[in-house]
Amino acid sequence: MPGEVQVKKASEINAPTGAQTEGMIRMNAITDMSDQICGTVMIAKPHTASAIHHHGEEDTIVYAAKGHGTIVSGPNGSKRQDLGPGDFALIPAYAQHQEVNDSGEDIVWIITRGGRNPIVENLDGWGES
């Protein structure tokens, strides 16, 4: 028998929750509701960067809802990929990366991960585990 449809209202998604990385505000939206998927909202304030991190065994899809930001990845952070409103990115499981907001405006990204709850493993630097 199928499960019930569940809705999380915007008014319920308004405080930092869940795993955090420095420089980013992460708010749980759809978490602990499905064994296979979860969703969060990430806000990066102007001129901030997250810690270098990965999301463990979870593949991650990013949808850029507002602002212009960058995902830094690759060996020693050698690759920079810019995202603007409407862009998507796929971050594979265990891929080390960093979110960067070099702009003067907030960026808002909608994050979907392949797991019941979001995993964030902060690292001391590139290549750490």
Automatic annotation (TrEMBL):
Residues 41-110 form the Cupin type-2 domain. InterPro entries: Cupin_2, RmlC-like_jellyroll, RmlC_Cupin_sf. Pfam families: Cupin_2. This is Cupin type-2 domain-containing protein. It comes from Lophium mytilinum. The lineage of its organism: Eukaryota, Fungi, Dikarya, Ascomycota, Pezizomycotina.
